[in-house]
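Hey, can you fold this one?
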Amino acid sequence: METKDSAEQEIVQETVETAAAEQTAQAAEAAEAEQAEKTEPTAEEKLQKQFDELNDRYMRMAAEYDNFRKRVAKERDMIRSEATGKALTAILPIYDNLERALAQETADSEYKKGVEMTARQFESALESLGVEIITAEPGSAFDPTVHNAVMHIEDETLDENCIAECFQKGFRHGDKIIRTAMVKVAN
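Sure. Predicted structure:
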């Protein structure tokens, strides 16, 4: 009987060992399958990765286009401002001559009236273009950013750094000074 029991124990032992070996083999296969899944992305993961890459490219392209649009608008405004400044610089001597003609005495009142109308029309055209006339009234404070001092006098009736006389009006277009006012400064 002992042989029978020991044979049965050997059979049980072999069965346990076989089952353990099979479990180990199955665990190894499962680990290999899991490893294979980790190395090979699923179709959904591939599509998500492709979507993320395309979305990133789209966002970068949109940002580049927005920067391009802003840069072109800034350049366009700068070119417009420069062109307006050059055109105004070319026609400002006409305004100066109209002002000189108004300052002269004439016996013909109709002639003087015509010159006044032309000068006022010129001023309204400048105003419609956004051009501001920089006036320098005698007695007002001297500002070196908008006035050009060409003479200096001593006058006790005027304050220090005060405009005594304006020889030529200045012009400003937006923030840009087209021409500074030419003035005589006292004290």
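The CA atoms of residues 112 and 173 lie 29 Å apart. Let me know if you want another pass with a different chain boundary.
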